[in-house]
């Protein structure tokens, strides 16, 4: 099974740059679909830059443009996770904004999606604040219940009494997909060409803002023992091993708005294994250089074919010829 994982973000109010960024995302997405034909695509949140405060009209415009950019056939399933720019940070999150998002993307704050025996756990990480707010509590309760179901789905637990009426899932540890990364102190250990720039890499992360809290991160690891965690939010790449065994990959931004070298991850998953590769999109600076050089060459070709210019060229050639004969 092949998957493409990406994260993106764009601005609601359109400026000239927004057109080129949206054009870049649309072309990149459509080309990736055409070449790779993935079964599923996960977008790890922050679909709308200003979804947290957009009016109904702006929201509808954003949704329409999103559908245009991420158009896909029924052969590909598109799963969109919730990010802080879609519904706001925890203190800005309301039931109205959450329901508005969930209705459009058919996504709930916690969900197990099983494909070909692989369990994908989709989490609204904005709601993992840990303060028992009604939305947070309901997400935590749901996750706890999923953890029990997954434990009962393994052979060793299946015969236990408390598992009798429990919903079952494929008997493999899940892959967690969410917007916020699990807790890490900074990006200091991150390497690679699309890791955070050196001047940002050592800045300490703030719990519940840049990354999940330590408590919420521990809970997710203890409850689910995931075989992989894929997250977004930071716009830069990072590979981290939590407790020396749980691999998390922070997927960089898919948009030129956030970086010159956007990328996405292509994954193949089985019930016991997975393989991931990173696909880089064209760099914005290279594309600008190609367009500028093409424009210069085109102008020169046009000028060469224009009569007045041909005349001027002839005079220059004659002068040069005379100079040589002297
Ligand atoms: Zn974010």
TrEMBL record:
Localization per record: Membrane
InterPro entries xrefs: Calcineurin-like_PHP (IPR004843), Metallo-depent_PP-like (IPR029052), PGAP5/Cdc1/Ted1 (IPR033308)
Transmembrane segments: 287-306
Cofactor dependence: Mn(2+)
An example Gene Ontology molecular-function term: metal ion binding
Domain of life of the native organism: Eukaryota
Keywords, in A-Z order: GPI-anchor biosynthesis, Hydrolase, Manganese, Membrane, Metal-binding, Transmembrane, Transmembrane helix
GO cellular component terms, A-Z: membrane
Predominant cellular place of this UniProt entry's protein: membrane
Entry keyword annotation includes NADP: no
Membrane topology reported for the UniProt record: Multi-pass membrane protein
Domain Calcineurin-like phosphoesterase residue range list: 35-236
GO biological process, one term: GPI anchor biosynthetic process
Family assignment from sequence similarity: Belongs to the metallophosphoesterase superfamily. MPPE1 family.
Protein role: Metallophosphoesterase that catalyzes the removal of a side-chain ethanolamine-phosphate (EtNP) from the second mannose of the GPI-anchor protein intermediate. Participates in the glycan remodeling steps of GPI-anchor maturation to allow an efficient transport of GPI-anchor proteins from the endoplasmic reticulum to the Golgi.
PANTHER family: METALLO PHOSPHOESTERASE RELATED, METALLOPHOSPHOESTERASE 1
Name the record gives this protein: Metallophosphoesterase 1
């Amino acid at each position: 099974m092949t998957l493409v994982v990406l994260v993106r973000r764009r601005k609601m109010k359109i400026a000239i740059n927004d057109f080129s960024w949206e054009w870049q995302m649309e072309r990149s997405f459509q080309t990736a679909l055409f070449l790779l034909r993935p079964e599923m695509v996960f977008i790890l949140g922050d679909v709308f830059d200003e979804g947290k405060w957009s009016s109904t009209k702006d929201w509808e415009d954003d949704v329409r443009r999103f559908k245009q950019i991420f158009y896909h056939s029924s052969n590909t399933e598109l799963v969109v996770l919730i990010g802080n720019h879609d519904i706001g940070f925890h203190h800005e999150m309301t039931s109205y904004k959450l329901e508005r998002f969930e209705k459009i993307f058919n996504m709930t704050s916690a969900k197990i999606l099983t494909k070909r025996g692989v369990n994908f756990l989709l989490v609204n990480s904005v709601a993992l604040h840990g303060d028992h707010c009604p939305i947070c509590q309901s997400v935590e309760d749901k996750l706890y219940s999923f953890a029990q179901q997954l434990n009962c789905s393994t052979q060793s637990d299946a015969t236990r009494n408390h598992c009798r009426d429990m919903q079952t899932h494929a008997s493999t540890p899940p892959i967690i997909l969410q917007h916020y990364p699990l807790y890490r102190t900074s990006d200091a250990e991150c390497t690679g060409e699309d890791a955070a720039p050196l001047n940002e890499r050592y800045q300490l992360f703030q719990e519940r803002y840049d990354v999940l809290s330590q408590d919420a991160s521990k809970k997710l690891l203890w409850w689910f023992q995931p075989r992989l965690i894929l997250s977004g939010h930071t716009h830069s790449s990072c590979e981290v091993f939590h407790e020396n065994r749980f691999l998390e990959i922070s997927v960089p931004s898919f948009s030129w708005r956030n970086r010159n070298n956007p990328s996405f991850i292509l994954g193949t998953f089985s019930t016991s294994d997975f393989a991931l590769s990173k696909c880089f999109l064209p760099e914005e600076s290279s594309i600008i250089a190609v367009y500028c050089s093409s424009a210069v060459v085109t102008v020169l070709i046009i000028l060469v074919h224009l009569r007045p210019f041909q005349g001027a060229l002839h005079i220059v050639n004659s002068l040069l010829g005379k100079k040589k004969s002297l």
